[in-house]
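hi!! sorry for the late reply, been swamped w classes. u asked for the two structures so here they r. pasted raw, havent cleaned anything up. first the sequence of the first protein and right below it the tokens
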Amino acid sequence: MRFASSFPPRGLITRGKSPSDWPLSRKLCLLFLPTCLLACLVAAVISYRAVSIALRDSLATLPLFEAKFQAEKMENVLERLRNSLFLVAKLEKITPQNIRAILPETFQELLPLVAEIGLKTGNNLGFVLLHDREAFVEIDGLAASAGPYSPFHHITSRTLHLNMVSLFPAVQSYYTGLPGHSDVAQSTVIRMALPLPENVGTLVLGIDLAKLHGKLAPYVRRNSSLHAPIQEGSFQLAYFFDTHGWIIFEMGNVANPAEPYPDFARRGYTGDLGRPGLDATFRPLAAHEDFWRMVTLTLDGHAGTMPTSAASYSQAHRDLPASIGHMPVRFANTADSEPVVIGGMAFLETSQLPFHALYRVAAHVGLFIIVVFFVFLALLYYAGRNLGAPLRMLTMRMENMLETGDFHTIEVAPACEEHQMVQASANAIIARSITMQADMESIQREVLQVRARIPVDLGQAMVQPVFEAEFGLVGSSQGIRQVREQVRRAARAGTDVLVWGETGTGKELVAAAVHAASDRAAGPYISLNCGALDENLLLDALFGHVKGAFTEAKTERKGAFLAAEGGTLHLDEIATASPKVQQALLRALSVRRIRALGTDMETPFNTRVIAATNEDLRECVRKGLFREDLYYRLSVITIEVPALRQRKADIPELAAFCFHEVAGDLSHREIRLSRGALEALMGYDWPGNVREFKNIITSAMAFAEGDLILRHHITRESEGLLSAEDSLHRADGTDIQKDAGGSVFPVGYSSASGAGGAGSGTSPENDPHAASAKGEQGRPVPVDEVIIGKDAVQRSQKTQEAELNERQLFALAHITQQGSITRQEYESLVGSGISPRTAQNDLRDLVERGLLERMGGGPGTRYVSRTK
């Protein structure tokens, strides 16, 4: 083999100094380095702005929001207790029993906050209901009014207004002589007083400060609904102070949830501990200006935030920035009056926001890095698209050359030095490929001519012994082996058998094999085609008749069931039996007795029934065309005969058997098959199965000049095989065909489907003869053709129509126009002079030629046009 090609001289690769000749790396660097620097600067500025905004917004709003929430919560509790006190005042007669009865309904879930409720009269003859152990204990008014800590002690010290609730500062109360208490009961309360009209007295309500603290404290804890992940590890403290600056109670994630004493709130401050009437309070000295500035602003009705010093909170959190928010707490004497400030709620919180700001910076930087990455990616894609345009054009032209086979040099305007080098290398490869292609085509032609004529050893000497030993079922594929095994089992079983398979697969041969392998082999074997007879004739053929049963019954007839006594009855095309025949068969098979036409006597029979069909009886049962009970009666044992396209591995053995069987009739001593002919047989789909295969082999043997069958000898005008006039003949006898693109492909191959032909049903891995059919991968194989196009099919149909008789031609035109016809309509159409059997044969011939399609069974069978 010669390769006449030389690499282009280096003078073809020129190096210029213009920008279009720069290397690709230099262009990319100059394009992206300034953009990268600018993007980094923008990212740094935006990150700084994001951190500043986040710190300013978060530090200013979080403590104020918490203080506002706690203040509103406390205002809401005081307002609801005030309204509940007004509801108590509406009682017609205020007695301990009446008040105790309406307390649960009036105060509802706020009832645990009520420490005491009572009525103070002018002569101190009132009463007090003290909340003790989930119950309200009545105390006499005289006893309740004694002492400085009684519920009525402070009520007389200020002026009260009718129908207005007055709120008093928190004080401590002590009670003695309570049932079940050996010591003094005490509590810290905030009292409300409501004067009643007509000098009835004054209603007094004591709010348990500890319970009020317990209702507000959960909203500051870590498990509260207001807790956010950003507050993890922070120091949070809320406390309430009155109009005189006394810190009454505190709550927070570090404070004691059960004690309102302001322990953490006073840390970092110096001042007074305890005021008259309430020991558990604290007030910072005037030197703490930040605290008193907050109190002053709050009492003036202002809310806000301010920074606080490190001395004001826990030692463990002094390194964290902190701010304090304050919000006034207001109370209205009535629902319509203007509320007044009764104190303030402060909220102190350390902030984790600086650390979270770092995370936010990292997030922003990461985000901008991603954005910059995609921007650079877009720029790189844009640059690559423009700089790679010559390379894409070069690739497209090379692909076009590979598809068309027209190799030539390529000239594309290069954009840089690398493009020039690639183009020069591509042209060098193309030049060498042109030379190699010419040499390979020459060698290919020589190989194809020789290989297509190589005889194939089919092992003819072993076919006949195997045929006789295997019940006449030729083949060694898995499918035919399964059939032989099913035949053996069915023969031993002795029950009725259903054989299913396409037309021409050898169903009758399988039925005969079951009979021959069974213990009934010595008995008769009768085969009856159910589709060849109409309903009455079929019943007569099956069950027989007695003399005089009908007009033409001159003698007695036994019928197939009795004629096959002790042997086998083969019922072919069982799916075509009419409903009446199906009913008769079902009864006969059920009771194993028959009744001849014209008699009422039943005769037992000992006959095995083997039914065969080329239709799926299960589908016929589903459509109502075949009796389900008869199907189950026949299909005790079902043998499915595979189509030839499903067992193409058996084609060589089938060919050898056909040679052995037909050789005597055609006066051939020995016949051989070429590799090209075998590839044609392996590539065909065989819609007619073994019957069609045998006919084609017989025709090929008849046309073969010598003892070797070549590809062009397999010339039958049938779907999938080319006729002789459709083949292209070479001088050496090898047939070739070209696809639409001009490429040569072998028999059984198409340019689209590859080995085995479209729809062959056999993969190269499962087909032991695939190696001889498709050759070695990556190189051409022997060229014969098997696939025909639409024109050849139309020519086949025209040829079949030309072979029809006058009745069929006349009826076919009518059927094509109307769409379908029945046998009775066919008799009426072509004339009354023909018998039903002749009409049936005409229609069956049209079905076998593929011009009509049979639908249904029995007298109602319709024949549908395939060309409608």
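now the second protein. again sequence first, tokens right under
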Amino acid sequence: MRQIEHFNFNWKYKNNFDKKYIHKEYDDIDFEIINLPHSNKMLPYNNINEKDYQFESCYRKTFTPSTYFKDKLVFLCFGAVMSYCIVYVNGIHAGEHKGGYTPFKLNITEYVKFDEENCITIYVDSNERKEIPPFGYVIDYLTYGGIYREVRIEYCSEIFIENCLIKTTNVQKDKKTLSLDVYIANPQKNRDNLLIKSTIKKEDKIVRSSTEKIKLTKKTVEKYSFNYEISDIDLWDVDNPNLYHLTIELEMNEDIIDSQAYRFGFREVEFTNEGFFLNGKKIKLRGLNRHQSFPYSGYAMPKSAQYKDAEILKKELGVNTVRLSHYPQSDHFLDRCDELGILVFDEIPGWQHIGEAGDWWQITKQHVEEMIKKDWNHPSVFIWGVRINESQDCDKLYKQTNEIARRLDSTRPTGGVRCIRGSKLLEDVYTYNDFIHNGIKGPLDKRKNVTKKTVPYLITEHNGHMFPTKKFDDTAHRVEHALRHLRVLDAMYGDTEIAGSIGWCMFDYNTHKEFGSGDKICYHGVMDMFRIPKYAASVYASQQDQIPVMTVLSSMDNGDLEGSIRGDVYIFSNCNSIRMYINNTFIKEFYPRKDLFTNIPHAPFIIDDFIGNQIKENERFSEKDAETVKKLLSKINRSGGQFGLADKMVFTKIALKYKMNKKDAEDLYSKYFAGWGSASTEYKFEGLIAGKRVITQTKSQVFKPELSIEIDSDILTEEETYDTTRVVLKLKNEYGDDIIYANDVFKLSIEGEAEIIGPKMIALIGGSRAFWIKSNGKAGEVLLRIESERFGTTTKMIQIIKSK
């Protein structure tokens, strides 16, 4: 039977490489002890020198395999190493790999000595080598360095299961078709007879079992295909992500010589000229692009952090789709997408540049195969991206990448993300980055203008660099950022020819000097780099129906706005209606503006009346004149005091009628729009669903700042590797509303078996900031201390446990 040893703790690391390091006898006492995943260099939040992580480094680890495994094959398996590595076992070259985003495994059997200490040495080159995609020219993201995903050793019999592709078809029928392509590795070219036993379960219930006889061939790897009909199956979809488990066993001479477990879902995907269909049901794809980077540690983050990003996408942002831009990503992230019901656009590494035929092309084709074989059983993956992002047409290369994808997996369409119109379509879906919306033009182009023909069409990026937005920008800028995402989504929902749109992007990210805002950050996200929302995040969050959402896109502080004119206030919510109160006085009940945004599931609310009946009830005007005055004051608030001649004449007539001077008119405006004549103005918004209040938000100009500390989890569980948790610091008022313009400084310290990722002195950015804590391989209690001049010292306890 196959035995797996996770190989992530207690590596030795050095930030340079010398040939003498490969020798087993080398004294590596001056190496640093580290755990995987590992970044070859911790980096600052911004103003990064992207050359800092581009160097050669060395990783070393010893292990002593038991003679129990003497008759087994030994494989060393890597999740990802950036970007080129050579593996030595006991000083002997055992293999190498080019490309930093896909997994690989090496057969190291002939180099291993049993019941003796063996030394694995890995040379890692994290430079941007021009023969390896995505390199060769500039790219708009950083690639970091190191062994940044997990490593394991597998001990296998001489005949073993290399992989299995699980295909589900006819899912809309009572009897669904399940097809298995089982790949059996037979490096010794044995000619034995075997049994392949397969068992399908949902939770603990067996759905189907079968046994098939096979005869091995002289091929080192042979594919064996089986088809079954299965009834009473729950389908996988975005709302009900039902998952099944397949166990495959190889039996020879009544002994089980290998076993592998896979998880999958019954579902079918299809793109047509009319859109995207999941299990025969048309679905609009609403999503965001995701980079896999984190502050300070780059790509090196374990399972819990990968899980959390998927949870943010589904539970906080309410999307049903994510694009892996621009490379295959962690198995953990995809596992959580499977569990949550998030559709995944999976894409090969690259950004605009196509290298020369030769190594670069060969590695690109290798990446297609490695990506597909890594991810083909994830029900969440609905399309293969087999073209370099935003590259020009290259028929010779892309005919080959499409052929590889279709040969390996015929159940999913291919796509290739473009930024050019009228491109040669070799894929099944025309996937296009539509950046037409500049605040005036757009918001989306028509399919016929882009594709020049009637074909399946998906928008894979929008907004992003067209309107970079920082979390600490002024209100008007942050609101416009949100409105641009809203306009695109509304246009997408209203166009039956568009299968969906995937916005750029989930969160801000570090980049090269040619891009970003001068500090090596692209502020393109609907969240900041720490996964803290900007206003634009609420556009997406408000489109789901699972939890009530209400975000008021204003602090109600007029001084933050041009001319101190508030104008209309947008609220993004999935509520049926919103009631507004000012200083506990009911003003009005508002409803979604479906007249302005006719297509999106949940149109925004526009607060365009801050007076209600107050002028009629509190002032000396007649009912008719009160309504006129209300309209005039509202127009002033909306226009910044710009009156037309007709409005001036109306106002003058009323002023004369009620013997009002200029000061009286100014006081009237100030009372109803700039403070109501009191020390402070409190605005309360109540969101209602089916007539029941489900959410409340309060705004006030006077408040007491409070420090909020939110921990994703106060229990860290070490399994295959170390664990992490995110700690979010926010300055809030007593109503729970974020105080955006705050930059308080905090000192962080920790006691116990853990460490803080990144600096120990941090300042809030736009009123909030986060950091991550990681365990170091030992169980125990951890005391986190957060110190501030304003808020004193706060402590939090975190528990670290080791999973058995």
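hope this helps!! also noticed smth abt the second:
The chain has a mean pLDDT of 93.
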